[in-house]
Amino acid sequence: MTVLKTSMRNFLAHKGRMALSAVAVLLSVAFVCGTLVFTDTMNTTFDKLFAATSSDVTVSDKDASDSGQTTSGNGKPPVIPASVLDEVRRAEGVKSAEGTVFSTSVTVVDADKDSLSPTSGGPTIVGSWNSNDARTMEITSGAAPEGGDQIMVDGDTADKHDLKLGDEIGVISAVGTHTAKISGIADFTVTNPGAAIFYMDTATAQRTLVGESGVYTNVNVTAAPGVSDDQLKKNVVAELGAGYKVLTAEETAEANQESLGDFMGVMKYAMLGFAGIAFLVGIFLIINTFSMLVAQRTREIGLMRAIGSSRKQVNRSVLVEALLLGVLGSVLGVGAGVGLAIGLMELMGQMGMELSTDDLTVAWTTPVVGLVLGVVVTVLAAYLPARRAGKISPMAALRDAGTPADAKAGWIRAVAGLVLTGAGGFALYLAGTADKAADGSLWLGLGVVLSLIGFVVVGPVLASGMVRVLGAILLRAFGPVGRMAERNALRNPRRTGATGAALMIGLALVACLSVVGSSMVASATEELDKAVGTDFIVQHDRGALITPQAVEAVKAAPGIDRVTEYKWTEADFTTPDGETVKDTAITAADPTYATDLRVETVAGNLADAYKPDSMSVHEDFAKDHDVRIGSEIEVAFTDGTTGSLTVRAITSSKGVIDAGAMYTSIDTLATYVPADKMPLDQLLFASAQDGQKDAAYKALKDALGEFPQYEVRDQTDYKEALKDQIGQLLNMIYGLLALAIIVAILGVVNTLALSVVERTREIGLMRAIGLSRRQLRRMIRMESVVIALFGALLGLGLGIGWGATAQQLLALEGLKVLDIPWPTITGVFIGSAFVGLFAALVPAFRAGRMNVLNAIATD
């Protein structure tokens, strides 16, 4: 009880000094809890949506996706004959059945040919209006579509694009372009997670999406009263046989959730990973805070020991303070996490994915995880300072000797840090010299962990040397004030090392990712310059297929010399060693592709692979299956028949573009795959006539004006697009790393604030002998800048090393150019100086306002 009272008194007495540590715990816990609440809410939203939109039993083609996505290679949804509807209706336990048609392989445009697809990445769905959809949609304006000239749109899409009744829109599918006028607007009765939905009558949907009548994509079946979904499924299967896919509502919802689960899982664990980094940085802040508080209470601890308090009680007193800090920060963090989740939901709403706060889901495990994590991390971080406090002898403390320095521990720390750093460096060397990327990645991971721990442990040793160098370069010009700032930073190397290490972690990751991202862009740019021999590339940025109408428009554009089509499909390969390799990708292209993309060959001539019944394989495949030039491979094409193809070329398995691709000609593919099953083009390559490049570029863009979903890029555009894509990804990662950097800044602020309190009497004496307020504030700012730059140098140096090693692994996959983005690295280093200045504002201001006489009188 006495320990608790003492801890409470000390905690309240130093509540201002604890505040920043509590904020660090709060931010870290908030990020964890916010991530959990946000992802749980998204899961709840989609669960409700899938449950509401799934019929009791759904019948579809056996090749259709379980989750209902329509991604057939020919651009049309898989269909079943209309006769299935009558068969289903005869099954026992069926109350009603309805045939529907829908597709997600479509683009919808307004009268100005602007796309109406969601910018959030959500699907565009066009289908027939049916009673199942009527359960989740309410017509709020106009009427349901009747006839080929009418279409209905969801209310969210209508609002975003200012669509009104009577407006004309066009539906672009593999069949062609169909135009209709808006007859009605329907609002969701459940949360719309970001899809754009358009409805036609059934006959029009069949013609527009499939190109034939008498077919459906799904038959939605409703059970009679008293009949379970499982029993209804058995009855329908018994009536239809095994030739169709039959799913219950629960199975359909699970399939939809599974298709979403991979994305949700990656997002969830990535965000939790960044929260973990913030926790790691926060540990340094907490250690520094309690170390300094213990040092400032040395005499108090000595008095406690003198009147009978044991080491264990002193230790326990500090840990109880940490427990109070952890509980306070974690409780506030849980609440802040819910607010963060709501903020993320609003942000997603701005991006087009509507998430309602009515579905806000806070599982009981979320606050428990937040509390346990925050408290455990705080108490563990405070353990070393608490243990150090317990070791203070009563006589040393009463003499105000402070926490005894342990030279032996310092040497052990230095040696251990150097050993760990050396081991990490050796692991990174092994990673950089590995023959296989998979093996090297294991060494890379080990090297990153060991070198990071090594730098943290050896930080105080490095601080002594690096701060002197930084001081000589930056501080000596400021005379005595600069020298005092340098001495203050060197006064406690352990504290400076821990403060710098907190900033080091975030900046090391920033530098590493910058090097990797910049090297990827440089490698891809070099590969494009060397390998791509075409002028223009036409593609859909989301990977959608190119419709035949768009292909014809490209071929008809004036100034175009040749157009190369590029298709992709799957097949089962039976190789000369007798092994069958299933679901293997094979690329079919026009013979001119050998000119448009100069692929490195290790045997044979790639142009020969486009001869009838010929193909190429990549080097790794050839080695694994004993394939040589002239070998025969039995290829069973998906949606087609089996043919025997002769291997005419073996290409390199490495490279940036089409790495590991296996080629054949479109004519060969057409021999074994019927016309109605032929896959659409993934992309097109176009080359201009001599001297007509600029005119052809404009002509191509004009020709595709009716098809806004496709982009026309020359090589310069393509490089910029690649750079932008990688840049956007890096910016998102930097944004998440900003949390760790903010916590590190709080650490610098707290270290300086406590350091000012620790040096109260010294500051008073310096003021008494003539140091002005301006000089005092400058001294503290300079100290902060040096600490920040020390952490930046460690982090940037470490990150560049990690990034360079990672690039060596990428070189094994064809990304051979190492590019260190010096402008970014320099900008981060300079930014660190401003971080130091910012962190020193409040401590320097408080130091300047200190009363001189009171400061001198401080005990």
Automatic annotation (TrEMBL):
Organism for this UniProt entry: Streptomyces werraensis
Region annotation (Disordered) ranges: 59-81
Keywords: Cell membrane, Membrane, Transmembrane, Transmembrane helix
Subcellular location field: Cell membrane
Membrane topology of the entry: Multi-pass membrane protein
InterPro entries cross-referenced by the UniProt entry: ABC3_permease_C, MacB_PCD, Macrolide_Exporter_MacB
Domain MacB-like periplasmic core: 19-236, 499-700
Tagged with keyword Cell membrane: yes
Domain ABC3 transporter permease C-terminal positions: 274-394, 736-851
Stated name of the protein: FtsX-like permease family protein
The family this protein is said to belong to: Belongs to the ABC-4 integral membrane protein family.
Membrane-spanning residues: 269-295, 318-342, 362-384, 411-430, 442-475, 496-516, 732-757, 784-804, 824-845
Keyword Transmembrane helix belongs to the record: yes
